[in-house]
Design brief:
Keywords: Iron, Metal-binding, Oxidoreductase. This protein is an alpha+beta fold. The N and C termini lie far apart (about 55 Å). The structure holds 2-oxoglutaric acid and fe (ii) ion (FE2). The site of 2-oxoglutaric acid has 10 residues, from strand 6, strand 12 and strand 13.
């Protein structure tokens, strides 16, 4: 089996594709490939992982479909709460890059909240929802920790450094599972300023994204020098959706933690136009975010030390601050 191939996409840009086959025996080789991808594009596709398996990924998508098929009044019983970063929202997430709401609905779940009011109750969720989502989070977490151990060693930290920083059953955990549903928009032509998900970077250390074959739309844009910047280039590369593969991207938190060595890149999801495949798209993201009390400091000390709680709070404030500035500039008052 080929350990790794680099595939050229339609815009002739390289998308690193990395096989996890025989991970333990091939760890050195896989580490080299992952670090190269993280230092350059900040983005890579994993395949051949044992867990979560293709059938487990298919199963969680079925559960997500069932959840999003529930009446809005039921889903709305667990509304999105900004401070907890948990709950359901629809057509409400505004990105600084667009100033317009994403055309989607999503639910965010945190493992340690599974028996609390920040999780849909059993009556307000499809049968088996809690078991399936918590078990999927456990698998995504274990794989993420294997991957993050590679970054820890490369930064000169102990192999289990990020493991100790991401303890998902503690009350200050911040890692999040997000189920996303982009509605069927067959026959609707949205203005070009509308996106299923507007361009953004993720706030976390590492995102694992699952997609389904045929439900394309994700695009990436490498080329960002500092984790605090909004700047982005204009070269966007489509990423073909493939069931079972895992699209990984570095988030701002790991970019900061690595003194900007590992790149957090902009990405977005297109609104397909009339004549294209406009059916629903489902995706699932697992965001690894360090526990609130963990201190973030890179080996070169490029940025002041801050806790992961402060880090996320500042990132959220920068995000909303930018939106409010845009509103003020366009003469609208902020909410
Ligand atoms: O649905 C996707 O492919 C991307 C979702 C995403 O980027 C996010 O939720 O941060
Ligand atoms: Fe994202």
């Amino acid at each position: 089996m080929a350990a790794s191939t680099e595939e050229l996409d339609c815009k002739q840009r390289m998308i690193p594709r990395i096989s996890l086959h025989n991970f333990d025996e091939r760890k050195d080789e896989i580490s080299t490939q992952i670090l190269h991808a993280a230092e350059n594009s900040g983005f890579f596709i994993l395949e051949d992982q044992i867990s979560p398996s293709v059938s487990e990924i298919e199963e969680i998508f079925h559960i997500a479909e069932k959840f999003f098929a529930l009446p809005e009044s039921v889903k709305a019983k667990n509304p999105f709460k900004r401070l907890e970063n948990a709950g359901w929202e629809m057509n409400s997430q505004i990105r600084p890059s667009t100033g317009l709401p994403d055309q989607k609905e999503s639910i965010q779940l945190q493992y340690h909240h599974r028996n609390s009011a920040f999780w849909p109750s059993d009556e307000d969720a499809p049968e088996g929802f809690k078991e399936a989502t918590t078990s999927f989070m456990e698998k995504a977490h274990v794989l993420s920790m294997k991957l993050l151990s590679i970054f820890a060693v490369a930064l000169g930290f102990s192999e289990d450094f990020f493991d100790k920083a991401h303890i998902i059953n503690r009350s200050d955990a911040q890692s999040t599972l997000r189920l996303l549903h982009y509605h069927d928009i067959t026959g609707t032509q949205f203005p070009s300023s509308y996106w299923r998900a507007g361009a953004h970077t993720d706030f976390d250390c590492l995102t694992l994204l699952f997609q389904r074959t045929g439900e394309d739309g994700l695009e990436i844009c490498p080329g960002r020098e500092a984790h605090t910047s909004f700047g982005m280039g204009d070269q966007w590369t489509p990423v073909k959706a493939q069931t079972g593969e895992i699209v990984c991207n570095i988030g701002d938190m790991l970019m900061a933690w690595s003194d900007d060595r590992f790149k957090s890149l902009f990405h977005r999801v297109r609104c397909p136009g009339v004549g294209e495949h406009q059916h629903a798209r489902y995706s699932i993201a697992y965001f690894n975010q360090a526990n609130e009390i963990v201190e973030i400091q890179g080996p070169l000390g490029k940025y002041p030390t801050m806790t992961a709680h402060q880090y996320i709070r500042d990132a959220v404030n920068r995000n909303y601050g930018q939106i409010e500035k845009m509103r003020a500039e366009s003469g609208n008052s902020a909410e």
